[in-house]
Amino acid sequence: ETGVTQSPTHLIKTRGQQVTLRCSSQSGHNTVSWYQQALGQGPQFIFQYYREEENGRGNFPPRFSGLQFPNYSSELNVNALELDDSALYLCASSPASRNNEQFFGPGTRLTVL
Amino acid sequence: AQKITQTQPGMFVQEKEAVTLDCTYDTSDPSYGLFWYKQPSSGEMIFLIYQGSYDQQNATEGRYSLNFQKARKSANLVISASQLGDSAMYFCAMRVPYPNSNSGYALNFGKGTSLLVTP
To answer: E strands of B1-119, at which residues?
Structure first.
């Protein structure tokens, strides 16, 4: 059983640019969640996808958007990057049958200059 | 509001000793779940232990146990026989249901506790 993978590992962008982060869910998992973790803070829920549809959303503006593909891989897109978007972005997948577990990937560290 | 509070920014423990990391929560939902995750410097969140609100017994997983006191709304993590590799950030989280959710849930995390295990 392969784990959750994310790419890229690190990324540097400038203010105003757009970024796409990618996540490959653990095999058999059809639910994926994205979290933003600012330095020194706990992760904050961005949104969740289930069977290719957004299933829930936290307090993030519309410039944060996502996609989930038929193979359950996922993308997080952020438009019009701001300095405060600098953070570790974590992807977590879970199997619908065992909703008590979310398996996290290693994260993508985004720096906005 | 469904909130998690971790009041200890940092903790020290000597190798082989036990340590307790505090977590309190606030929710009006009778059904909830509480999690502990470990985050080493590499960034990955590693699941440690889960406690459901209706579970009769405190959860245990190897050296990890959860001291669940429902009336006090606390879910403290106890690590026994600390090892140098236990040095990391530890996060307490609560499962939060979302409206119109077909499956799954979101996690509300606390701010974390940094644990340093010394030789």
So the answer is: 3-5, 10-14, 19-21, 24-26, 33-39, 46-52, 60-61, 64-69, 74-79, 88-96, 106-109, 113-118
Tokens (6 digits) for B81: 């026989």
B57: DSSP letter:
S
**Predicted confidence (pLDDT) at residue A113 exceeds the cutoff of 90:** yes
Question: 């290719």: which residue's tokens?
Answer: A52
Closest CA relative to residue B109, chosen from B11, B39, B54: B39
Q: How close B52 comes to chain A (CA, Å)?
A: 9
User: What confidence tens digit (pLDDT) does each residue in B65-101 have?
Assistant: 999 999 999 999 999 999 999 999 999 999 877 655 5
Given pLDDT bands bounded at 50, 70 and 90, which one contains residue A12?
very high
A33 touches chain B (CB under 8 A): yes
The interface residues of chain B toward chain A in range 28-47, judged by CB-CB distance below 8 A, are: 33, 37, 42-47
Q: Do A101 and B47 touch (CB under 8 A)?
A: yes
Confidence (pLDDT) at A2: 62
**What residues 46-75 of chain A have any CB closer than 8 A to a CB of chain B?**
48, 50-51, 55-58
Spatial distance between the Cα atoms of A23 and B3, rounded to a whole number of angstroms: 28
Statement: residue A93 has pLDDT above 60? yes
